[in-house]
Amino acid sequence: MQVLFQIVRQQADAAPHLQTYALNVEPSRTILDCLNQIKWEQDGTLGFRKNCRNTICGSCSVRINGRSALACKENVGGEVTRLQEIAAHSLSEPAAEIPTITVAPMGNMPVIKDLIVDMTSFWDNLEAVDPFVSTSARQVPEREFLQSPPERERLNQVGNCILCGACYSECNARETDPSFVGPHALAKAYRTVADSRDHQTEQRLERYSQGTAGVWGCTRCYYCNSVCPMEVAPMEQISKIKQAILERQSEQQPAQVSRPVRHRKVLIDLVKQGGWIDERQFGIRVVGNSFRDWKGLASLGSLGIRMVQKGKFPTRFEPSEGARQVRSLIDAVRKAEV
Questions:
Q1: How, if at all, do strands 116-117 and 111-113 pair?
Q2: Which GO BP annotation is one of this protein's (predicted)?
Q3: The pTM is what?
């Protein structure tokens, strides 16, 4: 079949541009096969990464028609079908007679050349979560530190990560907050939290709970789950770390816990009281820690002034009509959890 490849070409610190190549290929040919054909037969200057060609190494991650994927896994026929389905459900112009596949470099990383990106931040953020099992306090020289099959099974899903960078490329939180370590790092972090051989669980959970650099920086957009080629589901692993943090702080009063955990506790308490959030209390109790955090209170000042100026500051609170039902639902969920 005939297909056009639009490839984003770019040199470092230069504006990107599209370059089009026409190919005649079988639908079963992978995107990586097509990139190889372009490089070998049409343009030897095209830059991209590759290695195993078998969905193992993760080297060939690129953006294919707007979403990050492994070039060695996706094929021409599948991409053409996907484009046709998108066109059939959109109000835009119908798909062209000759299908066009657009290939671009991954996001959230600077471009070195064409489809090759600088993954320094990706590796640095992975190292920042210390993704290595620590057994120094539990070593038994006379024997191995063994795990039961159920203990090992907890690690299988995250163990499938090949560090391709697809989730990192599509992460909205990383795009807006450079301090966020990324879904790949936190998925690997959960592997150490879940590992029965690791003895630093408490310290890890404390570190992963700090500000927006850790799990609370995740916006729960689920893009990382949708693009992961190995079904690691980074979003699910982040949620498991959050749950572990919440379980350890569940018995503490809101004023004693970290702001992200206090945010969740106060939100539930206010919704339980009134059916929805009393915004007058929310900022004071979460950001201001019920008048204990003066810096937090001060940070609310400019926002409060703008709200008053625009007439958006709530002067009173009316509970919702369904407050009683909301309260019973929350109590039922808590009872089920116990």
A1: antiparallel
A2: respiratory electron transport chain
A3: 0.82
